[in-house]
Every structure is written in structure tokens, then in C-alpha cells.
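Long-time lurker, first post. I've been practising inverse folding by hand and with some scripts of my own, and I keep getting stuck on stretches where the C-alpha cells seem ambiguous. Below is the full C-alpha cell string for one chain I'm working on. Before anyone asks, I'm not after the true native sequence, just a reasonable design that respects the backbone. If someone could post their per-position residues I'd love to compare against what I wrote down in my notebook.
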């Protein structure tokens, strides 16, 4: 079970909750006071699906890419680097593309909120499209860092057919625009790119929430990270995550459920009396075999994720040709060396010049992730 925790002194009484607990949150929802539930998600809600996260210290994709001869591990998701060499991205995209992964019970819980008319807006840092696959209406989703749902030419902006995109990705081949022959890129937000206008158009909805649920994000990438603080101070905020993040836990009606997202969501579903319905909908959607796989111990999933990330990095390494196979030691290519000498970009500069993109797909562990390429 997730561990309930708060940094607020016990003497500070909540304004809208009877106490700082999951059961009190459930009572608040059942009372009818939560009619505009805003949900914020990051990579942590997708790790049980088998999607590698980006920022966790050991299994994170960035940590593993750091072993390669890149100026920054994030370069693979940097627009300038993509323009110079798009192949590494498409090597990764082959294994991260939607269709290979299935929604977790956390995704289905959000869909259930929508079915019951309680979901006001979902803001996600993930690009894996699993919210859509779980049945959350697209009209209620803001994919803050974009997604693999569409793609277009980076030059003339002409959209590219879905079927042809899938064919290219399946072969790890770079697609080119049928109109101008420019590079085609999925509509995910790379470094040096702006967030979708929809994010800014709907950001006010966080201010109108009467309940905020935050699942599996480290809240390190702005402006997404500032969304929880837009809600009125008296509005209950519930964090399902491996660790405390952002300002969560500092207000009287904050509830922290520390642990993996799926465990915390099941705890809330139990308190709401939705558990049987939730489990049935999830198994109907993903099938018993996938459901049982996701229910395996987190330690087993960690080993599988590490193996997958290692293979992904190996594939990228082959594309970059960064190792001198004769000596067995790292040896940067002339192109990579020239890049090091001319590119001043640091991680800080990248984030200043444009919001990070595919990241929340993860952030730190099974409950702390964010743009997820498969997301956060």
C-alpha cells in the first residue's frame, strides 16, 4: 500500500477534507464536492506498462545515453541535433512507438473519472498516447509535451500520413516530407521547441479545479511543473508518486500517497467503492496476460526495463558510430568532435531556450516520471 504522508503539522486542520488521508479524499469525491477534477500525469504512470523512463538514475534513458559520446544525453531529443542527424531518434522511436504498450490501471482510473463525469482536464507530460488508449476522450487531454499521435514536416509543416509514419518507424528509417522532402518529426516537443498552444489555452482550468490529482511526475520541467500551484490553496491536492515533489505536501489539504502509482490508485479506488469496476475495465482492455505481467513485482519489471534500455542505447551507439571497435575504447567521430567544439549547449541552456520535451516520461522511478517518451 502507498504510504500516506504530509509535511503539514498535525495541528493544521484541512479546510475541505476531514483529514489528510485517501479515505477522506474518497469521501470528498463521494460527497459531490469534486466536480472538476484536474489530473496531472508523468512517466511514473506508464512504467508498469514497460515504457522506459527518462530521468531515473539507473534505468532512465538519459542516464544510460550519458555513456555515449553526446554533448548532452538529451541531444537525441534536441531539435538542432535532430536536424543534423535524425537517425538516433528513429532508432529509439522504433521501440517507444505507440502500439507496443498497454495502459496501466492508473490510466484506466483516469478514464473512469471521465466516464463518471468528474474529469475536468487531464494534463500529461507523456507522449505515449496511453491515456487515449485507455479511453480518455481526446477533448479532455492536453498533451503538454506533444505525442506520437500525429507528425509533420519540420520545414513546411505539412502533415505526414499515419500509416507511412508507422512503416518508417517500424524499420527505424527517417521519413521525409512528400511535399518538400524535409525531415518529418512526430508532434512531440523537443528541446528548443515551444509547448503546444493548447497547454496555455487551458492552463486556467487548473485554477478552476476543485480537486487535483498528480500521478508519477517529478515536477521538474516548467511550465508544466507550475500547474499544481495554480489551484486555490484550499483545494485538495493528492500526489501518487515514489517521493514528494514540488510544493505537494505543504498545504493543509494536501495528501501524499508515496509508492508506485498503481498501488495508490487502487487504494483510492477501494475507498471509493470502484475497485471491482476498475479492475474489470482494465482487464477487459489489456487482457489477462498483460494484466498479470504488469502485476509482477516491481523488481522484476526493473530488470526488464534495464535490459530494454541497455538494448536501446546499444542500438543508438551503433548508429552514432562513437566507439573505436579496434581499440574497444570510446572514440568520438569527426562529426561528434566538431559538434563538441562548436555547440555551447548545456542542459541549463537547453531548458532556457525551449521547454524539455519528452521527458516526463520519466522522472525518477515507477512513480516519478515525466515526459515520457514513452512521458515527461
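-- Answer (accepted) --
I ran through it position by position. Result:
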Amino acid at each position: 500500500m502507498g504510504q500516506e504522508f504530509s509535511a503539514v503539522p498535525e495541528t493544521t486542520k484541512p479546510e475541505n477534507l476531514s483529514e489528510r488521508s485517501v479515505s477522506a479524499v474518497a469521501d470528498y469525491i463521494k460527497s459531490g464536492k469534486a466536480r472538476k477534477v484536474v489530473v496531472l500525469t508523468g512517466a511514473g504512470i506508464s512504467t508498469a506498462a514497460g515504457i522506459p523512463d527518462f530521468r531515473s538514475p539507473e534505468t532512465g534513458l538519459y542516464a544510460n545515453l550519458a555513456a555515449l559520446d553526446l554533448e548532452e544525453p538529451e541531444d537525441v531529443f534536441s531539435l538542432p541535433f535532430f536536424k543534423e542527424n535524425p537517425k538516433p531518434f528513429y532508432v529509439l522511436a522504433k521501440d517507444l512507438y505507440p502500439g507496443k504498450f498497454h495502459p496501466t490501471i492508473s490510466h484506466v482510473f483516469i478514464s473512469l473519472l471521465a466516464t463518471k463525469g468528474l474529469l475536468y482536464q487531464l494534463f500529461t507530460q507523456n507522449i505515449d498516447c496511453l491515456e487515449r488508449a485507455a479511453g480518455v476522450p481526446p477533448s479532455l487531454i492536453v498533451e503538454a509535451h506533444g505525442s506520437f499521435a500525429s507528425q509533420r514536416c519540420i520545414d513546411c509543416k505539412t502533415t505526414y500520413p499515419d500509416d507511412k509514419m508507422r512503416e518508417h518507424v517500424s524499420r527505424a528509417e527517417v521519413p521525409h516530407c512528400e511535399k518538400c522532402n524535409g525531415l518529418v518529426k512526430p508532434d512531440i516537443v523537443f528541446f528548443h521547441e515551444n509547448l503546444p498552444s493548447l497547454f496555455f489555452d487551458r492552463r486556467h482550468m487548473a485554477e478552476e479545479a476543485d480537486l487535483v490529482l498528480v500521478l508519477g511526475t517529478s515536477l521538474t520541467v516548467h511550465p508544466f511543473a507550475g500547474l499544481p500551484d495554480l489551484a486555490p490553496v484550499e483545494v485538495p491536492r493528492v500526489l501518487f508518486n515514489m517521493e514528494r515533489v514540488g510544493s505537494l505536501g505543504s498545504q493543509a489539504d494536501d495528501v501524499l500517497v508515496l509508492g508506485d502509482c498503481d498501488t495508490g490508485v487502487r487504494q483510492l479506488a477501494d475507498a471509493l467503492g470502484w475497485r471491482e469496476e476498475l479492475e474489470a475495465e482494465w482487464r477487459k482492455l489489456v487482457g489477462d496476460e498483460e494484466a498479470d505481467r504488469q502485476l509482477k513485482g516491481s523488481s522484476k519489471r526493473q530488470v526488464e526495463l534495464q535490459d530494454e534500455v541497455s538494448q536501446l542505447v546499444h542500438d543508438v551507439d551503433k548508429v552514432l558510430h562513437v566507439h573505436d571497435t579496434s581499440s574497444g575504447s570510446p572514440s568520438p567521430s569527426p562529426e561528434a568532435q566538431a559538434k563538441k567544439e562548436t555547440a555551447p549547449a548545456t542542459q541549463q541552456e537547453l531548458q532556457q531556450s525551449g521547454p524539455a520535451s519528452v521527458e516526463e516520461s520519466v522522472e525518477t522511478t515507477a512513480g516519478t516520471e515525466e515526459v515520457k517518451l514513452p512521458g515527461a
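A couple of notes from the structure itself: The chain is about 35% helix and 15% strand. The CA atoms of residues 45 and 190 lie 21 Å apart. Happy to go over any region you disagree with.
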